[in-house]
Amino acid sequence: MANEDKKIQIPDEVSRALSENETSTTTENKTVKTPDTSARPSFAQTDEVQRTEYPSEVVDLPSKGWFYDEASPLANGQIDIKYMTAREEDILTSQNLIKKGVVLDKLLEALIVTPGVKLDDILVGDKNAIFISSRVLAYGKDYKIKFKDPSNNEDVEDMVDLTQLQAREFDFEKCERGVGIFEYELPHSKRKIYWKLLTHADEQAIDAELKSMKKFTKNKNQTAEVTTRLKYVIQALDGNEDRSRIKSFVDKELLARDSLALREHIRENTPDLDMTFNFESEDTGYTERMTIPLGVDFFYPSTGV
After folding, report:
1. Residue 89 CA: distances (Å) to CA of 46, 84, 95
2. Relative orientation angle of helices 243-252 and 225-233, to the nearest 10 degrees
3. Distances (CA, A) of 266 to 13, 36, 198, 250
4. Same domain, 177 and 252
5. Under a CB-based contact definition with an 8 Å cutoff, are residues 276 and 291 in contact?
6. Is 29 helix (H, G, I), strand (E, B) or coil?
7. 8 Å CB contact between 151 and 283
8. Do residues 83 and 64 touch, judged by C-beta distance below 8 A?
């Protein structure tokens, strides 16, 4: 902050320019030279802190805020995120954050400007929408993807317009507001499942558990992702909320066909972006609705990472 008693040092070039524009006035038989201030730049001092406001955009959440507590700042179904600056690019290129696997989390935390929002509390589907919107605001809507043509296994490229991604259709009126717990009857065993929408914190816990399990697994190619995720999703079994009972059921009793049906039901009933696009093979004419592959270049389009 500038000191009010400190004189401002005007550059010599400015002083010379001002002296050439001085005009003379006569007061009480005294000739007083008065500078012509019309061309003088303003150097007004102030004790006020100057604040820089970054441009931001409002993002519509796929959940429409329906499943958050009414006191949550996300209950209105929107979140405000700011445009990326060079400071956020520092986060993206931090080798320490990359090694820890938290670089994108730290990025989103820096971009969210809605007061009172914690990344851990955001539903996974809503986080995906924030993630995509952040990429659009940072580097534009066009995203070049590379994948295999399912009809001939040849490498192909395509361009996806990220602004065209829409939220999946969802009937919110059939759900109780503020409650993210759903009931489902397994089609074959007829067991009644109560499951919940996962948050970012749940995803973090699942990833941490999978990494911990991998350290003690001899076969490094073996994964327990399906069962681990179901143990977090399922909140009650036939009305029983005992966690040990639920874990035992998933490991020993849950039929594969019931597991598949449950996972498909969860996918169809989770508010999220539709991350698919229509692909048509130029070589064979084959068409398919495919999932957009998100590579390491999604947030590093010009770094060669």
Report:
1. 33, 7, 12
2. 140
3. 71, 75, 10, 16
4. yes
5. yes
6. coil
7. yes
8. no
User: Tokens 């941490």 map to which residue?
Assistant: 208
The residue range of the domain holding 255 is 172-212+224-268
The model's pTM = 0.76
CB atoms within 10 A of CB 229: 19
Q: What is the pLDDT of residues 238-277, one digit of tens each?
A: 999 999 999 999 999 999 999 999 999 999 999 999 999 8
Tokens of 88: 């956020």
Q: What is the pLDDT of residue 16?
A: 52
* CA dihedral of residues 34, 39, 43, 46 (deg, nearest 10): 90
Query: Are 160 and 281 part of one and the same domain?
Result: yes
Euclidean distance between CA atoms 186 and 200, whole angstroms? 26
CA atoms within 13 A on the CB side of 49: 3
**Beta strand pairing call for 30-34 and 56-60:** unpaired
Cα–Cα distance measured from residue 12 to residue 80, given in angstroms and rounded to the nearest whole number: 47
